[in-house]
Structure formats: structure tokens, C-alpha cells
């Protein structure tokens, strides 16, 4: 079987999501990892032969077909541009594409000019429950879509980089809210036209995390170019595990998706056990542990799609192209502007 060689930049949380997905794909060999810290442990865990501290050295010394960029937001641009410089031909950037719209635009343009496939890792597009919801929508099962409401929330990021504006570009909105923003546009088949946003504002203005310089609560009303209405929510104040919910309202019906808490498993445990769902504090008492988050949150299908694009020289599908990462970021920054200026912003 033809195999592609993958290099992962980063070795913590997102890198683990990518690696856990790649190891299920027979067409992939994870050839190398580059990370400031922990690349040895990560390499041992996933049986990766070559480990580096510097991603530039990895790009120079390895012959790689696909790169996973799994390091903090402010570094996405420099890693993608370094990959292009090194002559690599396919790069997956984790979300958000960048911390500034101008940087994201430059990444898309440089990749286009150099015929590099830039893939934007929006995993919601590949979550099985959302794939099924879209099929029902596409076959007319709920009539015409009128309104989509979606949120991602949990109790705060494990990553110190995500807590500081200079590294992350923003808080719960750019980190978590970018999922519903990207997904709503994809499902509606239309760009976001205008937004009305509100955020907690960061630091002392936050609801809970006064040590974060980025906001820990954000919400926005949206209108898409085709008239569909939206409402997105993203916060770091939700205890009890990650809470991702999507509601789609149509002229003939509606769909409700519980992406994170809909497990068919119900466990009662007195002593507790290892792990239930992402960001949950406890596993004792009654819990609903995820069966397979790598699959249910879309990561396995996502990597499978990107690997197929490389193997068969296809372009990424709508929702996960570099330009989709750019339009999602434009909407996110329009929401920040709306929140700051307390008015409706047209994109
Ligand atoms: N799609 C998702 O569901 C999802 C989930 C979590 C994180 N992410 C995204 O993934 C990215 C990484 O987040 P994370 O949670 O893994 O962060 P993290 O803080 O857990 O890990 C950061 C990693 O980057 C490495 N690193 C930092 N600077 C580096 C440099 N200059 N060169 C090489 N390595 C460097 C660190 O060693 C570490 O391995 C972020 O952009 C985040 O938004 C996406």
C-alpha cells in the first residue's frame, strides 16, 4: 500500500489528537515530530522514528508529504510559510488559521501561489453526528434552514498559550467559537454577512478567569448572505465537561445535536475511573463517558480526508480549505469589533 510520510509540529494536546487519528490510517507513517518540549516522550508513545526541537530542521532533513501544525495560534503563520519555503506541498493548520486576518490572508495567498495544499482543521465538519445531520438537511428532511444555533464551551484551556492575547489572538471566541462560526457557514452554504457580538472582555472583566488576558465568555447573533440567522456561543465558564450543542431549525422540522454529552454509556462509579469526557473534573457518581472522542469529534475522519487529498492529489472539501479558515477568522474578528464598538458590523 502507498504510504505518505507525516511530520507533526507540536507534541501536546492537539498533536495528540492528530497522532491518535493518524495511527488508525494504514496509509500514514508518522515519520517525525518537532516540538520545543516533550518530543521524545511523544515520539516514543506514537513510535515516531525522528524527533526534533526545531521544525525548520525537521523540514530540511525529512522528506515529508504532509505536515500537521499543532502549536500555539501565533506560530501557525510562520510554520506554514516555513513549510512552503522548504518546498513542502501539503500543510494542515490547526484552528484558528492565524491570530490576525492579514496573516491568514497571506497564508492562503502564499500557499495558492506555490501550489501548496493548505488544509484548515475544522473537525466539526467531520463529526459523524454532524455529517448525518447535514445529510438530513440536504435531503430536505427539515425543509429550508431558517436558523442555526451552536456553541462550544468548557471550563478553560489547559494551554497557557490560549490564556494570553499575544499568543492566542483572543479567548473563548477565537478558540472555541470558531467551530460554530465555521460550521454554520458550511452547513448554510453561505458566508456570514453581519454580526452583533458581546464578550466578557478579558482580565478583571471576565466572569471567572481574571488571570486570562482574553475573554472567557462570548456570544454573537449572525445573519448569513442567504438570509439564514445564527447564534453562536463560546465560553470558558462551563464546568462538568466540554459542552458542544448544535440546533438547526427549518421550515419543516428541526435537528438537535449533543456532540459531547450524548454518550450511550451511563456509568455509576463510587471510586471513579480514569477519564470520562474532555475537561470533565470527576468520574465518580453518575457519568456518561465518551465512547471514542477522536471519532465523535471528527478528528479521525478529518485526517483521513486530508490524507486522501494528498494521496490522490485532490483539493480539500468546502469547510476545511485554507480560505474557509480565513473567512471564519474574518467573522470572528468582526464579532470582536462589534463587541468593542457595541454595534452591528457588516463584513
Ligand atoms: N481542533 C481542536 O479541537 C483543537 C483542540 C485543541 C487545540 N487546538 C489548536 O491546536 C493548537 C495547539 O494547541 P494545544 O492545545 O496542543 O497547545 P499546547 O499548549 O497543549 O501545546 C503547544 C505545543 O506547541 C509546542 N511549541 C510551542 N512553541 C513551539 C515552537 N516554537 N516550535 C515547536 N514547538 C513549539 C509545545 O512544545 C507544545 O507541544 C492551537 O492552535 C489550538 O487552537 C485545536
Automatic annotation (TrEMBL):
<dbReference type="InterPro" id="IPR036291">
    <property type="entry name" value="NAD(P)-bd_dom_sf"/>
</dbReference>
<dbReference type="InterPro" id="IPR051450">
    <property type="entry name" value="Gfo/Idh/MocA_Oxidoreductases"/>
</dbReference>
<dbReference type="Pfam" id="PF22725">
    <property type="entry name" value="GFO_IDH_MocA_C3"/>
</dbReference>
<dbReference type="GO" id="GO:0000166">
    <property type="term" value="F:nucleotide binding"/>
</dbReference>
<protein>
    <submittedName>
        <fullName>Gfo/Idh/MocA family oxidoreductase</fullName>
    </submittedName>
</protein>
<dbReference type="Pfam" id="PF01408">
    <property type="entry name" value="GFO_IDH_MocA"/>
</dbReference>
<feature type="domain" description="GFO/IDH/MocA-like oxidoreductase">
    <location>
        <begin position="132"/>
        <end position="255"/>
    </location>
</feature>
<feature type="domain" description="Gfo/Idh/MocA-like oxidoreductase N-terminal">
    <location>
        <begin position="4"/>
        <end position="120"/>
    </location>
</feature>
<dbReference type="InterPro" id="IPR000683">
    <property type="entry name" value="Gfo/Idh/MocA-like_OxRdtase_N"/>
</dbReference>
<dbReference type="InterPro" id="IPR055170">
    <property type="entry name" value="GFO_IDH_MocA-like_dom"/>
</dbReference>
